[in-house]
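Supplementary material to the annual report.
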Amino acid sequence: MEQDEKKLEPIFSVSEYIEFLNINLRKIGTAKITGEVTKLTISSNGHVYFFIKDKSGKGVLDCIIWKNNYALCGVRLEEGKEVILSGYPDVYPLSGRFSFKVNTIELKGEGALKKAYEELKNKLENEGIFDRARKKKIPMFPERIGVITSKQGAVIHDFLNNIGKYGFKIQMIDSRVEGQEAIKDLLSAIRTFKKKNIDVLVVIRGGGSLESLQPFNNEALIREIVDFPVPIIAGIGHDKDAPLFTLAADASESTPTAVANLLNESWAQALLFLERYERDIIGRYEMILSGYKEIENKLKISFNNFKNALTANRANLHGSLDKSLSGFKSLLAMVGQKIEQAEKVVFFNNPERQLRLGYSIASCDGKIVRETKDAKIGKNIYIKVTDGKIISEVKNINKD
Amino acid sequence: MAKKKSDAKNLNSNLKRLSEIAEWFDNQEEIDVEEGLNKVNEAVGLIKASKERLKAVENEFEEIKKEMDS
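Predicted assembly:
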């Protein structure tokens, strides 16, 4: 940069001056301008050039929005459409053209918003993005929770105050959740969580009007969550028109507290399940055991009865044996007496005893001689005495 | 070293196993007391470990930064 030697004023080259202007224009910061779109041109590389003018026609501004920002804002420009632009002033060095560089575009007016909402809703509905079948199931016992919300305000506190103490590992990304500027924040936060190891992603904010909830009706944002690797729970308060984000999410609750309760649910239920299993399994086994106890008691009674019966039988047996033995003894005594008597009879009637008394026994031809006819003259008579035999011949027989 | 199963996986598999044991009891017309006792012992262990996990455990909270798109 040169200097005027007399006044010490800087003398810029054209490009230097444009750069100087742009630096100072940036200091103004972003501004919001509302007006009607005219002379709309979309270039072959996707950047969009247009003018915005007051309805009165008193003011016209040259505008440009780059392709990426245009895609992101979710608003389709049409000539005559009333919009709110957010951006900053800029001079293009190669042409010296002053323009308003647009970051994001919003539709103006409840009617336009509603119309855009319905159009996008129908489009996404026809593509099946809201279909229940494509929604992911909230896992049982989620542990690692990703949270996207603004750290300003009560929402995050409500969520943290209501989430149960189940050892959750919560990671939060602070994001704007209101106004078109929130879209970039939300997209960036969702893409960051896509690379993190989480079980479920929670996106929460407080309630608001259709206008303030516009970021959650953004097509690019909705398409970003369709193929998200883990389930997304939306906790976005709303009145009647549910933000399209909540329709596309895998689960939706109306408040941050309700989202916290949903995450608590399976943990709280686990306790009930455990108590039920405890009752079912252990209770059932105790019942079986009590059945066996009953059988055991019956067996004990039966064994006792059997034991008693055995004792009684033993006693009877002893009695019978005693009886039998005494009968046997008297029988023996009786037999002994008989034998004694018999002995006596035998003793008294023993022929040898008679012989010793002087009697003798005579036999002839092997027959005892009892009468005279038993002997024959000339025959031998054998006379048995105590110590031997005498043989004599019959000489004479005299019958009395 | 084998990776430790997460609490959620443990709790899930414990509940699944308990459900199988409960079903086993339901399906037995005549319980094998010995086998039943083994199953009861297993169930008691699972219930105890699961209840232990469900006791209040403090949450961890961390704010992380957005990563710039590459």
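The interface with chain A takes residues 6-8, 11-12, 15, 18-19, 21-22, 25, 31, 33, 36-37, 39-40, 43-44, 47, 50-51, 54, 56-69 of chain B (CB under 8 Å).
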